[in-house]
Amino acid sequence: MKKVLISPLFTIILFIVILVFLFCNLCKADIQFWDEATNIGVIIESAKSSDWWNLKYSNSFFWEKPPLFYFLGIAVYNVFDQANMESMILYLRAISGFFALSIIYLCWAFLKKKTSLISANLSILVFLSIPALYLFCPAGVFATHNFRSTDSDILQLFFIVLGYFTLEGLFGDYKKIPNLVCIGVFSALAILTKGIFGFLPIFFLAIKVFFSIKKKEIPTIESAKIFLYPAIVCLLIILPWHIYMFFHFGDDFLYEYLLYHQIGRAGSVLEGHSQPIWFYLQQLLDPRISGILLPTLLLLVLTRFKITHESVIGLCIIFVFSLLQTKISWYVIPAYPFLIMYISKELAGILDDTKNIFSKSIGFLFLAYFTLQAVVIVMNLTTLPKGIQSFENTNQIFATDKELHRVFYLYTLKNESETIPLNDLKSDESKKVMKQIIVDRNEIETSKKFRDNFNLSPLTDNYSAIQIEE
């Protein structure tokens, strides 16, 4: 087994399989509710505007997220064929696919340099075994952000991971000024991609410096310089855009962008996304969503008694997001690379422990499971159902067919202030919104906004797929 895991051919095969997972049938699934549809709308509408740097959506300025991901999407939209919407969806989703591939490669390169080729190759197997990273709405859970969607999460995670690897010495001693500047740059780019959690690389640095001072590895004055370099660089990069937006749009921008979308999610439940504090633990324990990621992690912690930077960071991310009032399944995607690296290093140690037959048997069992799980995921990708079908028979969304899917999207285009509750089909608000959608149908259809952008035919009269029980 060890010879297989360190074989160059095996490494090549793993990366080929990763390419299949990331790009196979990439444009086949429906545009996902709500964020992917919104992101594509923002990119297309802004690209057609003369002042494309002021993002727009449904004839209004768009301030939900920072601009970097959308600027990249606008560049892709302008470079490639705009007439073929299916190809455009492929190119826009491929942005996430490319950066996901980069994250996986960086994890592989880091483990290969710091530990062994066995742990590096095992990390790819573990990446391949997690359905939530590739499939829309696994197990019927509302989960539309992943390695294959037009969303900014993966680009932000790419910059966070780059910052972490710079700090951990992948590119040399982190205390050298060029590397400290890079940590600041990566943190700033992560913030300009999706917001305040982009500060994570600087937060990682602060923790590392704190423990270095406690161990008397570096003097206090030098530690202050180490922290200040990336902090100042980060602020110099992120402030110009924020200052520009504030001076041009004032308190409206400040409220919607910062107070509502960045800070509001921590202290209050936004858009109906209320879940219990153990929500992410449930997801990590469900093999249809996260494979056996968390059980493997717990077993390794209990049997090998090893706590590493990666395991602490991964579990801290899950813990912090569990405390937030607004909880959505994809918020914990940043934890995956760190947990995967920890699991891979420890599994490699188990497989290398030839004296302990019990430990070796456990290692082989997990290896077999990760391989089987990867086969199941690729079968799902090659016979990919429409994304909206993933919601069938759940209580998390109304639509169960493509025509009604369009109605919902058109409704949200027309009434951005309206929110459609996700968690309770039988609520009075749900019935009210559904009635309003049908009442407004003829008026909405006269707007060609959605059909022109997405090359769709007019809506049909078939609403039989949806029923609201009294």
Based on the model shown, name its key terms:
1% strand; globular; disordered C terminus; 20 helices; mainly alpha
Structure description:
The chain is mainly α and about 475 residues long. The protein folds into 2 domains: about 1-380, no CATH class; about 395-455, no CATH class. The chain is about 65% helix and about 0% strand. The chain contains 20 helices and 2 strands. It has helices spanning about 1-5, 10-25, 35-45, 70-80, 85-115, 115-130, 155-165, 175-195, 200-215, 220-265, 280-285, 285-290, 295-305, 310-325, 335-350, 355-380, 400-415, 430-440, 440-445, 450-455, and strands spanning about 55, 60. Strands 1-2 form a two-stranded antiparallel sheet. Helix 4 (about 70-80) packs across helix 5 (about 85-115) and helix 7 (about 155-165) runs antiparallel to helix 8. The longest helix is centred in the middle third of the chain and has 48 residues, at about 220-265. It is globular, with a radius of gyration of 23 Å.
- Indicate the mean pLDDT: 75
Overall 3D geometry?
A: globular
Number of strands: 2
What is the string of SSEs from the N terminus onward?
HHHEEHHHHHHHHHHHHHHHHH
Structural class: mainly alpha
> Taking strands numbered 1, 2, ... along the chain, how are they ordered across the largest sheet?
1-2
Largest sheet: 2 strands, antiparallel
User: What portion of residues belong to β-strands?
Assistant: under 5%
Q: Could you list the spans in which at least 5 consecutive residues all have pLDDT below 50?
A: 385-427, 433-470
- Count structural domains: 2
Oligomer: single chain
Q: Could you estimate the helical fraction of the residues in percent?
A: 55-70%
Give the helix tally.
20
How far do the termini sit from each other? 59 Å
The radius of gyration over CA amounts to 23 Å
